[in-house]
Every structure is written in C-alpha cells, then in structure tokens.
Amino acid sequence: MTTGRNGALLVVGDVVTDVVARHRGPLAAGTDTAAVIRTLPGGAGANVACWAAHAGCTDVRLLGRVGADAAVWHEQELIAAGVRPLLVVDAEAATGTVICLVDAGAAAERTFLTDSGASLRLGPADWSDALLDGVARLHLSGYLLFTEASRALAETALTAARARGVPVSLDPASAGFLVELGVDRFLAFAEGLDLLLPSRDEACLLTGLPDPADAAAKLSRLVPLVVAKAGADGALMARSGAVVARVPAVPATPRDTTGAGDAFTGAFLAALLAGAGPEEAAARGCRAGAEAVRRVGGRPPCPGSGSSDPGTGS
C-alpha cells in the first residue's frame, strides 16, 4: 500500500458547470427576481479535488466525465487549481449543469436544480486499475451511486482499491438523492469504505436518528471512521460506535455555502495524506469550510484560472 506523503489522492466524481444566482429575500413567483448570476466550474468531486490541492496536496488526480461543450474549459480550470484532470469526453451528453439559487441573506442558504448530464454517465469502461498506480487514497463522490452506470464504476473502483490496500472514502453528497437511492442500498455499499464523510442531515437520514452524534456513532459501527460535518457546529468524529472527538467550526460570515462540505473533505483528505491525525485533519477541514463560505461558488481561489465562460474554452 502506498501511504503518507509519497502518495497521490485520486478523486472519482462529478464535474459540472455551476450557474450561481444570488438573490436577496424570497423568489417572486411568476415574475422577476433581481439576482447576481455567475457561471463557475463545480461538481462535488471536482470541488473536493481542488480544495485538496489548495490545502497542499501536491498530487491530486480527478477522474470525471464531461461533454464536449465545456471539456476544454473544465480541464483548464482544474489544471490551474493544481489538479491533474483525467476527463472522459462524452460524445452524446452535454456537461452537467447545476443552477444554485443562493439566498443572499444572513444564512446564505442554497437550493440546487441539477442536470447531471455527462457527469453520471461515467461507467466501468472508463476505469483502469492503473489509475491507482502511486495512489495513497481514493475518494468517491456519493453522486456516483445515483445512476446504474456510475454506481457500477464506484463498485469497480472500490474493489480495485481494496485489493491494493488503498483506503477509500466517500461523501454521501445529497440527502435528497439518498432518499431516491434508498438508505439500505447506500449502506450496503458503505460497508466497504474506510472513511465516511456525511453532512449532519445525511448522517441522520442514514440512521433514522435525530441527533447527529448518535447518528455518527451508529454509522461508525459500519465504517471504521465517520466524520459528520455540521456546518457552524463544526464536525463530529466517531469510531467503533462512539463519538471520539468534537471539532469546533471556524467563525465565518457566509456569502455562499455552496461547496463548504467539499472544502472540508478536500482539506481533511490532504491533511491525512500529509501525515496529520484525524482530529487535526478535521480542524483543517473546518478552516477550509470557513474559507469556502466566504466565497461565491464551490472552489478555492485559483489565481491562474482561465476564462469564467465555459463557452469560450479559453
């Protein structure tokens, strides 16, 4: 098994185009609502990879699927963020698009309209065990579990990683999609994981328990390490059926909470690869989450990034 500072992080997951609309107050049905709208690169898997690179991981690789319409732009943005893109270009489907409606009020709450497009057409044929060469950790986006093809890819990747002794983590991704998938199907897949990084709501949904600490503890009987992300309440860590640490959040005034959980996950994984223990890694994750909510969009600052318009490809 490749471990520690000498190994890479391989992320397998979604790459999408985010259209972020920040509005103040309720949406006005049937008429106009003033908003500030930006088109940004996104996708939970891609965001995690970028935040891991931002946190200091020097070898981050991302396997994802995009349409020809925005392939060049996404590749450029990932390279600029310090990520090695391993993008499959789909000849039929367009790049996935998510419309993020962000309330510009104090809570910066967001609502997503999701067209997964090419991102969830990633399948077993896109996988090669050689992708694990030099890899110390594999991270899977939970969105992979929500279509048959991408779920088969996730199972293939998990099996290959376990055969090589590479630890595997997963972020459940969406409470709404978890309901559609079914909790039992998700938990059956989770049995093969080393690390689960749910949000507070996802942890409660997966266990049927109302208290996040109880939920994290229960999940840790299935997965060796569970880190439940609780936003402004920080994070909970659980092992062997018990909460073993509570890590406080870093205070921040949110502009946009999109990608905060991805930021935590990316920084957490980067810290583990650098040799940090889980509690220190969670503290770094909380710092990254605070940095994320101060920004619009789901990615870290990227000084060398290309155009903000995916249509130009430059």
Please tell me about this protein's structure.
By secondary structure, this protein is an alpha/beta fold. It has one domain (4-15, 43-91, 119-293): 3-Layer(aba) Sandwich (UDP-N-acetylmuramoyl-L-alanine:D-glutamate ligase). It is built from 9 helices and 13 strands. It has helices at residues 44-54, 71-80, 148-164, 175-181, 183-190, 200-207, 212-219, 260-273, 278-293; strands spanning 8-12, 16-23, 35-42, 60-67, 83-90, 96-103, 110-115, 135-141, 168-171, 195-196, 225-229, 235-239, 242-247. Strands 5-4-1-8-9-10-11-12-13 form a 9-stranded mixed β-sheet, sandwiched between helices. Strands 3-2-6-7 form a 4-stranded mixed β-sheet. Helix 6 packs across helix 7 and helix 8 (260-273) runs antiparallel to helix 9 (278-293). The longest helix has 17 residues, at 148-164. The radius of gyration is 18 Å and the shape is globular. The mean pLDDT is 91. Residues 292-314 are annotated as: Disordered.
